[in-house]
Amino acid sequence: MEHLERDVVVVGAGVTGLTAATRLSAAGKSVVVLEARERIGGRLWTDVVDGQMREIGGQWVSPDQTALLETLDELGLATYARYRDGESLYITRDGELRRFTGDIFPAGERTESEITRLIEILDGLTAEIDPAAPWAHPRAQELDQVSFRTWLEQQTDDEEARENIALFVAEAMLTKPAHTFSLLQALLMAASAGCFSNLVDADFILDKRVVGGLQQVPLRLADRLGADSVRLGTPVRRIEWDEFGATVMGAGVRVRARHVIVAVPPNLYDRIQYVPALPRLRQQLQQHQSLGLVIKVHATYETPFWRAAGLSGTAFSPYQLVHEAYDNTNHGESRGTLVGFVAAEQADASFRLSAEERKGRILESLAAYFGPEARRPVTYYESDWAAEEWTQGAYAASFALGGLTRYGELQLQPVGPIRFGSSDLAGLGYQHVDGGIRMGRRLADDVIAAAREEESA
């Protein structure tokens, strides 16, 4: 067993933990990062599978993500625009394939009008929400006690309009059925991106990608710390803490530190034993948060054949197994790649199938949008983060009904020398890399401020 002493131990080598660690190191603090996986990056993972580069985890950069954009610039990482020329596709409730441009799906005059009206209502409500403290809204409890699906049913009798609005938050973002989370949780999701309209606008929210992959952000941050400061394959099993600091115990290492930052998703907090145990409300908080479920599908073809047909590669339908798809062709490649998503209850059902049957049904769904050529990719891969031991879901944790007002304010409160944080707890940039960076900066600044207070006491 190796024994170390540091000012700060960071648990988790994702973008939050590494942002915090590099900021602390720059401020003169001694830091060690303990990571359970045998790789750096957390929910960012760029890898080559069957000879094809894949963004297995997070990948997109949007204009509002200023913390991420600043970091990319600082690290010298270039971006490129997602291909979006041409028309998008929508499959109606009756199975009709329609081409369109713009943000509103071509679902018929009345339904389109209802979709527009609902977006306007949601934009108005979102403008009242502080993403850093949604529980502070005067009607927070009311908004947190009604499911998003129930609220939509109260607003319109147009089922197709309801299904399309739900798609933007339930399947596309929280990856949970719309009856399982509250209107307030949906408004937080929208507020974190600036407004609900931004969630609807694929050209905004999925604007750019990083040349060479987004995992380069945590990799380059880790390089700045140095190999001795990041320990891979070192899951933390126990944290003994008191008012003077903590002893953090992982595989083969024991570290005494004044401060600890636990920078992992909330569903993994209880993989660590805390001595003494965490306060009761903190334990309750963790039981009311969970990750959703999604299959991210990567299908690569010899050419991006849809472009010749005047299509952007963007497709949507709440009535298809693949509820959304995009042109995900890598920078500089002649091959074409489609990325598609199967979420929530559709993902539940898909995982009950054999791998071959699941692949067949997913490709059939892509073919419903793009034609028979979509059935014949040269490489095919499914990102399955629910099977990852140190993630167990996608894309981020959200609260069950009523949980956001009941426990949200507790999330960032320290427990003695221990602080918790990740993109799951962010306001702006919630569940995105941008939010992870913001959280890392905040956690580091909180530790630095606390250390100054201790020194002056």
TrEMBL record:
Keyword Phosphoprotein annotated: no
Record protein name field: NAD(P)/FAD-dependent oxidoreductase
Keywords recorded for this protein, A-Z: Oxidoreductase
Enzyme Commission identifier(s): 1.-.-.-
Transmembrane listed as a keyword: no
GO molecular function: oxidoreductase activity
Protein's organism: Blastococcus carthaginiensis
Enzyme class: oxidoreductase
UniProt similarity note: Belongs to the flavin monoamine oxidase family.
Coiled-coil region: none
